[in-house]
Amino acid sequence: MRLFKYFQIEVILSIRSPIFMGFSIYKNLKLALKEVTCINPSYHCEKCFHQKECIYFQWFFEKEPPFRIDFYLSSPTYSFSIYLWDEKNYPYLLSAISIMLKKLEKKENPTFLIKPHQKEVCYKITPQLINSNFFNLSLKLSTPIRMREEGRVIRKVGEKEIVDFLSKELEIPLPLPQKTTFKRRFFLEFYKIGGTVGKLYLEGVDFNLYYALKIGEIIGIGELRKMGFGKIEVEEIK
Predict the structure, then answer these.
(1) Quick one: which of 2, 43, 100, 210 could link to 28 by a disulfide (CB 3.0–4.6 Å)?
(2) CATH class for domain 2-122?
(3) Which of 77, 76, 57, 73 is nearest to 65 (CA)?
(4) Where are the domains of the chain?
(5) What is the pTM of this model?
């Protein structure tokens, strides 16, 4: 049995958001986090004495940051969540979000709301397939799923690419569903950066893949999850 711990930070800011708010949130959050964490008088990252310990440098220059921006494309205002699975740096992120929102609203007395929650998902994934229990699922690709094959962006991501991605992330082989039906699937771009959105129906999903997809709801799928890409929603069909 494995316990996946994470923080969900819900944010409500009642000002109009751009058509794809992920870019704006990421850009402003990056600037705010540097303001919170930087101790270099020059304010430059290059050859900084604090690079190895600096979470700003680690998150934005060395590796994919351990967080995902989560929102709905239809939201007219800045209503979003940030999922973080790096417990020790939670206070820095929370401070950066507060600074970011004040700058976004540009008011002397800002009226935003931050609701942090510590959550956990308990799941069991084993190398042996559990064939006695299958699920039928609805899988919604809610924000563009951006993935590559041989260096090229895949125009129509399907169940194989999603399962392969989760197998690598969780470091365990996962079986494909027995049958997949595409209700709708198309390539959606924002500022010339895009991915696949749509809805899939998965039949004959085994226990391992079901739980992997539920973890996928938290960590997201594919590239640019730090900017809001890769949001999926999984629902069991009874």
Answers:
(1) 100
(2) alpha beta
(3) 57
(4) 2-122, 134-236
(5) 0.88
Residue 161: beta bridge partners?
Answer: none
Q: Which of 172, 184, 151 is nearest to 215 (CA)?
A: 172
- Check if CATH label 3.30.70.1900 holds for domain 134-236: yes
Quick: pLDDT tens for 104-126: 877 656 567 788 777 776 555 55
Q: Are 80 and 69 in contact (CB under 8 A)?
A: yes
In this structure, how many other beta carbons lie within 10 angstroms of the beta carbon of residue 14?
12
Cβ proximity of 231 and 220 under 8 Å: yes
Which of 81, 90, 106 is CA-nearest to residue 33?
90
Higher pLDDT, 188 or 112: 188
Tell me whether domains 2-122 and 134-236 share a fold. yes
Residue 48: how many CB atoms within 10 A of its CB?
Answer: 16
CA distance 140 to 33: 31
